[in-house]
């Protein structure tokens, strides 16, 4: 390949820069205070995007999340028809949407805004050197750690071989393993989740969205030590799926598509919360009591808001969610050398009301108990990311009666 998508091998710590290389928040590299030196203590577990290992660095215990080289379908990558062998195109998507960068951007936003307490502590990213990669695989060989593919298909390849080797660096080597260093806290059991935890989690989701973070993957397994721990699917503003200003060539219909996609992402976090509560009650309520907290009444999706237009004599369909993440001003950055000021958050932010016009089908879909499979396809043209307006699902979503 003629270019690299992933971070390359640093020659020294001086080569490490805040990541990712795109507009928006960037996570600083972890400071080893010298050469990289990690003691791998225990394999904690794995998820779709990564392995988690308990480690010791300079006499302190951490959890390190080591990311896989995932299948393109496991993140918000370009549409199939675009062809995914173009490194320039894949890098444009990678910087904003690949799981490692999603997590970097979300944790960096929390630090930037002074709200690090909304999640498990994060201390920066690392690129595992070759010596430590060998050490990891040797010491924890019983767990058969694989960095290509997914939890469901470990060792998976793309059309030309291992995913990690698809985009080689300038020196011809596959890229290093990427990791994020976090506070270590023993994982809890799902049945230990309680009413107070649910109330705090719902409040925290609203705070995160006010900070421009959506697609939080709301689940009880996410909560460690009372805080959210995983942002590998997060969409953080500015982002091609939320921020039309990133592409001045968008048409009005394309801007409308981006707005709709953002609304879907924002609302889905609350629908996932209600789904989580339904599942928890089904599995644990008999023994531990019913959790009554819900985002939307009866856990059935948001009720519609109807406004009658007397001039046109038609009902204008409106749907709501709780926060508009676009209201976060991502262009305001703390000055260098000045400690981050804590961004003020509202206890009751204004509802985001989405107007569907006369499109009753769209309104009904947005009011349903899940919008997970509603979404926009994306394409890359002339150095920019666009909504794929020829996609039938996009056309159907934007149709007006």
What can be said about this structure in brief?
The chain has 401 residues and is an alpha+beta fold.
pLDDT under 50 segments (min length 5)? 308-315
How many domain regions?
A: 1
Number of strands: 16
C-alpha termini separation: 47 Å
Determine the strand fraction and express it as a percent band: 15-25%
Order of helices and strands: EEEHHEHEEEHEEEEHEEEHEEH
Structural class: alpha+beta
- Give the quaternary arrangement of the chains: single chain
- What's the gyration radius in Å? 22 Å
Silhouette? globular
Question: What is the helix content?
Answer: 25-40%
Number of helices: 7
Q: What brief labels describe this structure?
A:
5-stranded antiparallel beta sheet; 401 residues; alpha+beta
What does this structure look like?
It is a single chain. The protein has 401 residues and is α+β, with helices and mostly antiparallel strands. It has one domain. It is built from seven helices and 16 strands. Strands 1-2-3-7-4 form a five-stranded antiparallel sheet. Strands 12-13-14 form a three-stranded antiparallel sheet. Strand 12 and strand 13 (314-321) form a beta hairpin. Helix 1 packs across helix 2 and helix 4 packs antiparallel against helix 5. The N and C termini lie far apart (47 Å). InterPro entries: Sim4_Fta2.
């Amino acid at each position: 390949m003629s270019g690299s998508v992933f971070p390359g091998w640093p020659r020294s710590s001086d080569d490490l820069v805040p990541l990712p290389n795109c507009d928006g928040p960037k996570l600083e590299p972890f400071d080893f205070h010298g050469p990289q030196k990690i003691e791998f203590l225990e394999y904690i577990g794995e998820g779709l995007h990564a392995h988690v290992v308990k480690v010791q660095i300079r006499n302190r215990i951490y959890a390190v999340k080591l990311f896989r080289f995932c299948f393109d379908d496991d993140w918000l990558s370009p549409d199939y028809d675009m062809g995914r062998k173009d490194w320039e195109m894949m890098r444009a998507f990678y910087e904003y949407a690949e799981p490692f960068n999603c997590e970097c951007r979300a944790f960096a936003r929390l630090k930037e805004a002074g709200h690090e307490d909304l999640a498990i502590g994060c201390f920066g990213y690392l690129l595992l050197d070759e010596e430590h990669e060998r050490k990891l695989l040797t010491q924890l060989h019983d767990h058969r750690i694989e960095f290509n593919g997914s939890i469901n298909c470990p060792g998976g390849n793309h059309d030309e071989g291992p995913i990690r080797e698809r985009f080689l660096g300038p020196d011809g080597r596959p890229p290093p393993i990427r990791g994020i260093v976090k506070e270590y806290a023993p994982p809890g059991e799902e049945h230990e989740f309680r009413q107070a935890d649910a109330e705090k989690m719902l409040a925290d989701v609203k705070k995160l969205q006010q900070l421009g973070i959506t697609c939080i993957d709301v689940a009880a397994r996410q909560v460690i030590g009372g805080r959210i721990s995983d942002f590998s699917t997060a969409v953080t503003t500015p982002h091609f799926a939320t921020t039309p200003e990133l592409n001045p060539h968008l048409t009005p219909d394309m801007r409308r598509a981006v707005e709709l996609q953002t609304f879907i992402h924002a609302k889905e976090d609350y629908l996932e919360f209600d789904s989580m509560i339904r599942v928890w009650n089904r599995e644990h309520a008999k023994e531990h009591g019913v959790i009554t907290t819900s985002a939307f009444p009866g856990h059935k999706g948001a009720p519609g808001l109807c406004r009658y237009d007397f001039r046109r004599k038609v009902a204008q369909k409106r749907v709501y969610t709780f926060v508009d993440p676009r209201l976060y001003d991502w262009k305001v950055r703390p000055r260098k050398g000045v400690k981050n000021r804590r961004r003020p958050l509202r206890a009751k932010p204004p509802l985001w009301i989405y107007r569907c016009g006369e499109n009753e089908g769209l309104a009904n879909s947005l009011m349903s108990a899940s919008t997970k499979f509603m979404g926009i396809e994306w394409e890359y043209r002339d150095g920019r990311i666009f909504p794929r307006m020829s996609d039938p699902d996009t056309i159907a979503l934007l149709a007006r009666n």
